[in-house]
Amino acid sequence: MGLWLFGCASLLGVGSPNIIVIYADDVGYGDLGSYGATGVDTPNLDLLAKGGLRFTSAYAASSTCTPSRYSLLTGEYAFRNKEAHILRGNAPLIIDTGKATLPSLLKSRGYVTGLVGKWHLGLGGQGEPLDWNGEIAPGPREVGFDYSYHMAATGDRVPSVYIENGRIVDLDAEDPVEVSYQDPVGTDPTGHTHPGLLKNQADYQHAYTIVDGTSRIGYMSGGNSARWTDEELPDIFLGKAVEFIESNKMNPFFLYYATHENHVPRIPHPRFRGSSGLGVRGDAIVQMDWGVGILLETLNRLGLEENTLIIFSSDNGPVLFDGYYDGAYEMNGDHRASGPWRGGKYSAWEGGTRMPFIVSWPGAIAPGVTDALFSQVDLLASLAALAGAEVPEGEARDSLNMIETLTGRSQTGREYLVQQGVGIESLRDGPWKYVPKGVMRDRRKIGIVDKQSISAPGLLYYLPEDPGEQNNLAGLYPEKVKKMKSLLERELGG
Ligand code: NG6
Ligand code: CA
C-alpha cells in the first residue's frame, strides 16, 4: 500500500480509517522502550512506534487526568472550565451535552463510537445526587459515544464497579449502591477502621471503603455482586475493546480505549507479576503493552490493520508514589519514567505534560520520528478534518487542525501551547519554555510533594540545550519573557 493515498488532493474522503485512541494513565515519556525506557520492556508499543510516527514534542493539555481528558474530547483547554479538575467519583458530568466532541463529530460522519476504560469526566446532572441504581445519565453516551463500558472515575476512587451503557454491570437490585465523598454510608470496613484487611497499605486519603482488599478514596456501600476485582480489570476492559472492534469491523469506528494502567492501585494480574524489573509499576506497563499487542492482533485477524489509525498516548506524566505503599518508589532503580524531562504528574515542568505519542496507520503513514510541537487538544480538529466533519463555529476553540503533521506529511507543528499543571500554567513557544510566578509541584517521592515557589520574572528555559529545565535564562532575556508572559496571559484570559 504505502503513500499512494496521499496522491489525492487531500486526505478527506480517503476511505475514512477506523480510529483508535489508546489513552494510558500516568504513563511517562520515558516508560516505553522506544522512548528509552530501562527496566521495562514494551515490545508491542515499540513495534507500533517502529512502523508509525513517533512524536518527541507532543503534549497532554494538563498534568492530571480529568483536565487532559476534557481537552482531548472537547478541543478546549481545561482551564476554561472551572469544573475540569481531578473529580471525585460521584461528581456530575463536566462536559456540556450540547458541545461538539471528538466522538460526536466522528459520529456525525458515520463512525460508530465507543469508550472502554477510564472515564473520570463525571456522571449525572449538575445539582442533583445521582442514583447509581437506575440509568446513569448524562454520561459518555450523551456526549457522543454510542457504546460505553467504563469505570466512573479512577481505580482508587469509589464506586468500584463497571458501567455499561449507563447501567452498573451485574448489579443486584436488592443490594443498591450508595456513594459518598462526605459522610460515611453503610457499614463496610475502611482502611482507617480495619487496616488489617488491606492487601496494600495506603495513605490517609486512600484509606476509606475497602473493595477487594484495597481501600479507596470515598465511601461506598452495596453493589457487592458488581464490585470489580483489581487483577481482572485490564483483561475485562481489553475484552470489551476487542468485542467493540469485532462487532464494528464492517463500518468505520472510533474507539477511545482508556487503559487503567498505570494508575494506582497498581495491582497487575498474577501472570504479569515480576515481568519487569520495576515492581508493580513496571509490571502494569508490561501488562498494558501486552494488551496493545492483543489489539493489534485483533486488527490483523480482521484484516483491518492497513486502514486503522492508532494513536497511543498518556494523560499525564508519571508518579512513583500516589497513595499506596506498593514499592514503586523503592524498586525504581535508574529507570527515568519522565525520560530526560523534569517533573512528572501534577507538574507544569516538562515531565508533567510531555507524553509518549505514537501514531500508526500502516496504509497511509510513513514510519519516522518528528519533533513537531503537538497538543492532544488538537486531536479533535485534526481527526474531524480527517473524517470530513466540520467543527461548528465557536466550538473546540483551542483545537488546531494539524492532520498533516499528525500523519507525517508536514514537519510543522504548533507555534506554541499551554501546559497546565496543578494551580499553574506554563507556556512552550518554539524551543522556549516559560513559567510565570507561582508554585511548581511534583510528586515522585513517598508522601512528599516537591514544591518550588517562583517569583517574578518567572522561569525561562531553552529546551534544546537544557531539557532538564535547570538553567533559568529569564534574567538574560527580558524581552522574551515579556512576550511569552503576555502570550500566556492572552491564552489564559481569552
Ligand atoms: C489525587 C490522588 C491520587 C490520584 C489523583 C488522580 C490523593 C492524595 N491523591 O488527588 O492518588 O487519584 O488524584 O489521578 O487523594 S489522575 O491521574 O486521575 O489525575
Ligand atoms: Ca492520569
UniProtKB/TrEMBL annotation:
Superkingdom is: Bacteria
Gene Ontology terms for molecular function: hydrolase activity
Upper classification of the organism: Bacteria, Pseudomonadati, Verrucomicrobiota, Opitutia, Puniceicoccales
Q: Does the keyword Hydrolase apply?
A: yes
Q: Name one Pfam family in it.
A: Sulfatase
Print the keywords alphabetically. Answer: Hydrolase
Coiled-coil region list: none
Originating organism: Oceanipulchritudo coccoides
User: Which intervals hold domain Sulfatase N-terminal?
Assistant: 17-389
Please indicate if the UniProt record lists Hydrolase as a keyword.
Answer: yes
What is this protein identified as? Arylsulfatase
| Family annotation (PANTHER family) | N-ACETYLGALACTOSAMINE-6-O-SULFATASE (PTHR43751:SF6), SULFATASE (PTHR43751)
What the entry lists under InterPro entries is as follows: Alkaline_phosphatase_core_sf, GAG_Ulvan_Degrading_Sulfatases, Sulfatase_CS, Sulfatase_N
Q: Which family does it belong to?
A: Belongs to the sulfatase family.
